[in-house]
Amino acid sequence: MRTPGFWWSAKPAAPARALMAALAPAAAAYGALTALRMARRGARAPLPVICVGNFVAGGAGKTPAALAIAARLAALGARPAFLTRGHGGSLSRRSGATRVDPAAHTAREAGDEPMLLAAVAPTFVARDRLAGARAARADGADVAVLDDGLQNPAIVKDLAIAVIDGAVGAGNGRVVPAGPLRAPLAAQWPHVHAALVVGEGPPGEAMADMARLLGKTVLRARLAPDPDVAAALGGARVLALAGIGRPGKFVATLEETGAEVARLAAFGDHHPFTVAEIAPLVEEAARRGLRLVTTAKDAARMAADAALRPLLAQMTVLPVTLQFADVAEVDALLAGALVAGPRPATAS
């Protein structure tokens, strides 16, 4: 899905405001249905469940956050496994749960994000989150990290963390399709224990202030580009290729390395690339003397297609990791979730 620009603007132009008004009834219906769904009582999983989700439709940085949280859990002595829906992969259409095998599966079967997760910890793709949790427990995990699923009521979350992009926050504050929110914030906050603000910006600060007023824990983090790749990109002129929730975030990361972004080729989140789309970009980069750079998530999808692999080999892949501002605060929150069991998200 390619998100509209007006979703992320606090002060959209007049034509966008008119469109938002026209979409308001659909947004109200969508938000109400999601809110009702979130209010359902979930089943208790056979192991603690830590949900890493977001309020908006894509682009907040939840997968890097899930990876970072799994790393902290491992440092605490836990054995984490990831649970995911496997968006865009054929495994998501199967019943039960399937453990992703990085040596046998590709993004076509598992989805792009599960391929990144499976490189770090056991990862289970399941439409039924409870089935996924049971499979993870049977496989030896003692805590499940739910990548996305804040709006999914299937299982009880022992800890629910909402990841917020500091640069855009809740965007225009409207619900899909009039804005990026999956449901009104008032309906989502009661299901959240902590807000993780990634990066800086007034929109993120506004969300952090709201979280504190509601008694939620506020965590801080930043997305850091791989240092070796970043060093190689410093001073380079690049053509950025991104099919993610908010491609502008990739541009900001590239600029952080010191690269000059000559052009951004933006596609929708989880976009299934074709040779007809990528080959001209490879040719353009060569013709203009630019370095073609893409994200790890996009590279996972391209690696699944034999016809795209030679083109991918001519690109630079820039991985990012999420770095917490206060690791001790994160560890304390996670440790509490491991031993305390389920607790209400609304502060007492």
Automatic annotation (TrEMBL):
Its EC number is 2.7.1.130. This is Tetraacyldisaccharide 4'-kinase. Residues 87-108 are annotated as: Disordered. InterPro entries: LpxK (IPR003758), P-loop_NTPase (IPR027417). Keywords: ATP-binding, Kinase, Lipid A biosynthesis, Lipid biosynthesis, Lipid metabolism, Nucleotide-binding, Transferase. Transfers the gamma-phosphate of ATP to the 4'-position of a tetraacyldisaccharide 1-phosphate intermediate (termed DS-1-P) to form tetraacyldisaccharide 1,4'-bis-phosphate (lipid IVA). It comes from the Bacteria. Pathway: Glycolipid biosynthesis; lipid IV(A) biosynthesis; lipid IV(A) from (3R)-3-hydroxytetradecanoyl-[acyl-carrier-protein] and UDP-N-acetyl-alpha-D-glucosamine: step 6/6.
